[in-house]
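Hallway conversation turned thread

IA: we were arguing at lunch whether anyone had actually written out PEGA domain-containing protein end to end. Turns out nobody had. So, for the record, here is the sequence (71 residues) and right after it the structure tokens. Reply here if something looks off.
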Amino acid sequence: MTSYEVYVDGEFIGDVVLTKEKPEDIPSYLTKEGYKDFQFQIEGNKIFINTINRQLSEKMRNHLEIYLNIK
């Protein structure tokens, strides 16, 4: 069980503790949800996701908050 800080386009969206998921599961989830053209990077306990535009960024943040149960 590892805790991560999650950022989308440089904006901190919350802390998450992954119990069943691995960080590498996140890009697969986003792709399955129809997201393309994003970059995913893990640096220590931080997860960085970068998108191509602001509208995509906002939608992605909403999906991730639900998927990761970020509070």
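OS: looked through it. Helices lie at 25-32, 54-67.
IA: good, adding that to the notes. The chain has one domain: 2-67.
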